[in-house]
């Protein structure tokens, strides 16, 4: 649950004032992070029944299939992406089988604004994956509804889920209705415009992380708010250590728009793992924690193996097989893909950490440092959402 909405003061107490600062990073294998150090959100500003906005510029199981891409030019590498999501609402028990959605690009994109009982059981967190029309590119996103709207009688999940549904629908049709190729920021903007214009969501706000993954092995990510992503790569031995810090994370009014999203472009390599997650993960697990979880699974499945003379790590020969359905064995002895196992591992540990009274995560450590009188210890209970992408280059 994102804890801010436009016009709402957040200085009330430390439990809402601070999120993930001082994140512990394993330097050698973390290629990139985008974990914002302050709270911001897409937000509507007026009371119901009509939206008065700044001028705008799925609970179903599906078989595991891959987002198979094709190159735009014969000289370009061809990347395939294995993608799965795992999630859990704050008030629910986590189930590694029920709270898992592997993605199939051939499934039809549902019409936006599905009934609440057809959404994934992810609470105020939401996510989407959609093929971009007439291309081999893939759009991915997560959103975290601003919980403060509950006080106004508004369900925050209506905005976040509707926002993701509109982005998925837009991506699937974008090149049929728009001559300009879709970008991460433009997709975020279009999803925002559509949900605001729909008239079916009374009010609300959301953080957002949106990524475009193309067949040439590049990703563009737009981030607005306190969700984030991390890109992991097999590399040199040892993890080193370090902290990524930021400044103050509060503000009297935060009414950011998609145009305010920070955008970065990154090159992907064979065997990279990209994790998109909401603050229910990052408040309870550090970047180093996620690196450890991913490395353990990748090594166990021999997706990452010891390099020559045991120096560092490199990508295993059977990575392409591991992202197929049944590539690895799940905890319940069912057969999963590598990306599904990674998503379950991360979401499961984040859920356990959020409920722990003794395990101090990034949120707890920062509150203890800044507000010792709060006597905060243990995890921070919240909705949890993780989307994992495993990049595989053909011929490797």
Automatic annotation (TrEMBL):
Protein name per the record? Protein phosphatase
Source organism per UniProt: Sclerotinia sclerotiorum (strain ATCC 18683 / 1980 / Ss-1) (White mold)
Q: Which InterPro entries match?
A: PPM-type-like_dom_sf (IPR036457), PPM-type_phosphatase-like_dom (IPR001932), PPTC7 (IPR039123)
Tell me its EC number(s), please: 3.1.3.16
Which reaction is recorded as catalysed by this protein? O-phospho-L-seryl-[protein] + H2O = L-seryl-[protein] + phosphate; O-phospho-L-threonyl-[protein] + H2O = L-threonyl-[protein] + phosphate
Per the record, the similarity remark reads:
Belongs to the PP2C family.
Q: List the cofactors.
A: Mn(2+); Mg(2+)
Q: Which residues form a coiled coil?
A: none
Enzyme's top EC category: hydrolase
The record's keywords, sorted A to Z, are: Hydrolase, Magnesium, Manganese, Metal-binding, Protein phosphatase
GO molecular function term, any single one: protein serine/threonine phosphatase activity
ATP-binding as a keyword of this entry, yes or no, is no
Q: Where is the PPM-type phosphatase domain?
A: 108-391
């Amino acid at each position: 649950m994102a804890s801010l909405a436009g016009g709402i003061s957040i200085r009330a107490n430390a439990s809402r004032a601070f999120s993930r600062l001082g994140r512990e990073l394993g330097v050698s294998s973390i290629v990139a992070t985008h974990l914002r150090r302050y709270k911001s959100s897409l937000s509507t500003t007026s009371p119901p029944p009509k939206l008065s906005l700044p001028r705008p510029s799925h609970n179903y199981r599906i078989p595991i299939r891959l987002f198979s891409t094709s190159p735009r030019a014969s000289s370009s590498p061809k990347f395939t992406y294995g993608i799965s999501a795992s999630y859990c609402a704050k008030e629910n028990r986590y189930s590694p089988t029920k709270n898992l959605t592997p993605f199939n690009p051939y499934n039809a994109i549902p019409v936006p604004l599905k009934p609440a009982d057809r959404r994934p059981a992810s609470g105020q967190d939401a996510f989407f994956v959609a093929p971009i029309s007439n291309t081999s590119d893939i759009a991915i996103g997560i959103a975290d509804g601003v919980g403060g709207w509950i006080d106004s009688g508004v369900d925050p999940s209506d905005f976040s889920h509707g926002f993701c549904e509109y982005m998925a629908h837009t991506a699937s049709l974008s090149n049929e209705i728009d001559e300009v190729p879709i970008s991460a920021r433009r997709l975020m903007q279009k999803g925002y415009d559509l949900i605001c214009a729909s008239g079916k969501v009374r009010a609300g706000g959301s953080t957002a992380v949106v990524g475009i993954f193309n067949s040439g092995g590049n990703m563009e990510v737009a981030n607005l708010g306190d969700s984030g992503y991390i890109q992991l790569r097999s590399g040199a031995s040892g993890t080193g250590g370090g902290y990524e810090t930021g400044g103050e994370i509060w503000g009297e009014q935060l009414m950011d728009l998609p145009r305010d999203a920070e955008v970065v472009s990154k090159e992907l390599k064979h065997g990279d793992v990209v994790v998109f997650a909401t603050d229910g993960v990052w408040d309870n697990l550090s970047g180093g924690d996620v690196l450890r979880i991913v490395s353990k699974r990748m090594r166990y499945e021999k997706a990452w193996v010891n390099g020559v003379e045991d120096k560092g790590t490199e990508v295993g020969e059977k990575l392409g097989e591991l992202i197929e359905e049944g590539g690895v064995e799940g905890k319940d002895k069912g057969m999963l893909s590598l990306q599904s196992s990674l998503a379950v591992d991360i979401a499961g540990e984040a859920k356990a950490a959020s409920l722990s009274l003794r395990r101090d995560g990034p949120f707890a450590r920062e509150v203890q440092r800044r507000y010792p009188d709060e006597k905060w210890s243990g995890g921070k209970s919240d909705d949890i959402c993780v989307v994992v992408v495993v990049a595989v280059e053909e011929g490797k």
